[in-house]
Every structure is written in C-alpha cells, then in structure tokens.
C-alpha cells in the first residue's frame, strides 16, 4: 500500500502485522498524521490492510482523538472518512461497524467552530453515499450541535462531576504553565553563539574547543528540556479542554436549576403582592367602624362594694 510521507514501506501490511509493538507503531502513525492527501490515504490503506485488528485500531483512533488538539482531530476524522468509504471494496466492511460504535463520542470532541463545517461536510458525504444509515448521521449532526442526542452523556457528566476535581486540574495546569514560562525565559536568555564553519577554524586550541563544546551541550540540553516540556503541555491541553467543557455543562445545569427556583419565588412574590392589593381594596369597601359606645345616661359606674374590683375588707383592693 502507498505510505504517508512517500514511505511506502512504512505502511507495508505484512511486515507491520508481524512486527512487535503494533499499538506503539499505530500511535506514532496517528500522531504523525498530517492533512495531506498522501498522508491520510497512506495511513488509511495501511489500516484497511489490518482489518483483523479493526477493533483495536478504532479504539486507539478514539484515544488519539481525545488527546489531540483541534486541528489534528479534524485530520483524524479525514482518516476515518477515507477508511469507511474504501473499506467495503477491500473486503474490510468491519471498519464501518467499528467506527459506528465510537463516532457518537468522537463527534462530541469536534464541536469547535473552527472544524465544525468540515465535519458537517463529511457527514453530508456519508449521507449521500449511504455509508451509514440516515438516522445515524442525523444523530451525529445533533451531537455536533449539542442537541438532545447528548442527553444521556450529559446526564452521566452531571452525575459524576465533582467541583473540586476541576479546581485541582486547573491548579495543576497553572503550575505547569508557570514552569513553561520559566523555561521559556531561560531559553530566551541563553547566550551561546552558534559559530559558522569559518568561526570553527579560528578555534586554535583544545581548551577553546572544549569550552565551546560544553556551552553548546548545555544549551542543547536546556532547549531539549524546554521542547519536551512544551510537548507535555500540548498533550495536557485536550484533557483540560474536556474538563472545562464538562464543568461548563455542570454549571449551566446548576444555573438553570437556580433560575427555576428564582422564577418560582418571583411568581410567588407577585401573587402575594396581588393578593395584598385585593385585600386592601376589600378593606376599603367595608363600612366604617363605630367608636366604642358610652353607657346610656342615668347609669352610673359601680363604686365601692358594687365594684367588681372590690375585695374583702382589709384586702389590698378594699376601698379606703
């Protein structure tokens, strides 16, 4: 089969099948995939030649998708598109079933506006050429725009999300980013001059040569450490993005719940105000209340022993 990057031997089916470390080899190929037709078709041919490993290949494809940056995820979808379109005529239809198992999860990872349009075009091609059933591609489109098809997945996220987890992840990422800034500053401050061929000829003694060699090795080690650190940083980004998307989903749900409660209490408060207004209107319509009536003329208030407040003689309530 034709190989990516012009190296047909790299995608030789029989040789790679027998070689050890198949998973590691596949991982390298997926990581090194570019957006050129040669790279995508070359790896697609190699994958189809290994149809006996279809389940493992697709599983590794999804793992690579999850930890890749946005642009590389699009390349991986182009690869999947080439595989599912060409596998039938190469008697490897098993790849369509294998990809159908993971495409719903995979589609949720390519909702970024930068790649959404190309992904939609891929789904359109699948519909036109009947690569998958129409209801399946409709479901993928719904996932792509984050509609009801994501409800079961969202329910799991809401049930499993822990606020302290995202805080810890962000704190760890901040620490890692601070280290990156420090290493970048150190790399920028390196003062080694890379000499030309003519400059090397000016080194007259072994001491001068060793001094330059040591400086060059030290600089190279620091730069290599910085590059390795950045590679780790790049690999962490998709995981952080995934965690942030889950946090966004969780807090959006929480906000909706709070809005429901706020609306309920607002409506209750409005009903109380309305009821108060109605009661005030009723009170205003009631007849005026008469003042306390005085006793009829000629009736005197009780006094002395006739008073209900009079007590036995000698008691504190006895009249003087």
TrEMBL record:
Residues 18-148 form the CID domain. It comes from the Eukaryota. Gene3D superfamilies: 1.25.40.90, 6.10.250.2560. PROSITE patterns: CID (PS51391). Residues 294-320 are annotated as: Disordered. One of its GO terms (molecular function) is RNA polymerase II complex binding. It holds the Pfam family CID. Associates with the RNA polymerase II complex. This is Regulation of nuclear pre-mRNA domain-containing protein 2. It comes from Petromyzon marinus. The lineage of its organism: Eukaryota, Metazoa, Chordata, Craniata, Vertebrata.
